[in-house]
Amino acid sequence: MLNEKGFDEWSGVYDDSILNGVGYPFEGYYQLFGTIEKIVHSKTHPKVLDLGIGTGTLSLQLKKNGADITGVDFSERMLEASREKLGDVELYHQDLTEGLPVELYGQAFDFIVSTYAFHHIPTVLKKMYIKHLVSFLKPDGQLIIGDIGFQTRVDYCFCEQENIGHWDYEEAEYYFVYEDFKGYLEDNFSVEYSQFSSCGGLLIIRRRHDRKD
User: Fold this and answer.
1) Most exposed residue of 86, 157, 175, 189, measured as fewest CB within 10 angstroms of its CB?
2) Structure confidence by residue, pLDDT tens digits, 128-175
3) Which CATH code for domain 43-207?
4) Phi, psi dihedral angles at 99 (to 5 degrees)
5) Beta bridge partners of residue 51, listed in sequence order
6) For residue 46, cis peptide bond before it (omega within 30 degrees of 0)
7) Taking the domains of the chain in order of start, what are their residue ranges?
């Protein structure tokens, strides 16, 4: 798994590597981004927290459409790239596995978005982390996670076999498999999961009392 230094070194070519990538692990990347943009744009001037903001590609589009952006990333170089794109926004340097920066406590967001960063959260922490993030949402807010993910463990294994030559076994320990979390999530929150490609999934979580049954 890449550490902070690895992401610092990757920051200069990150956007091009995503744009030119084919198949695993970024298949469906821009489709996920487009869907998140539509969801966020459904609210006027939303307050958005972007976790693992990276080079700011998604947040730039959200900001252009009126969103108030706050970003967090554990790579200073990634944050520098975001500053160049986004200008005067709040950016924080912190490892997501350590929770949110203390400066954000007491704030509430319309949307918390995380794209291709959630798989850096160890599986044993994911439930606790999701609960932690939901507590920072406004009553009608949404936590939106787009990442390498799978509906079932069978789907995960199939993708692994199809990409055996370049499967990232260290990162794969943390890939999200919806069926492994389905019981916990649906018991505690209003949840939607969509599979966008063979390796790309979108998870939307709302407070349980927001469920419209």
Assistant:
1) 157
2) 999 999 999 999 999 999 999 999 999 999 999 999 999 999 888 899
3) 3.40.50.150
4) 85, -170
5) 72, 114
6) no
7) 43-207
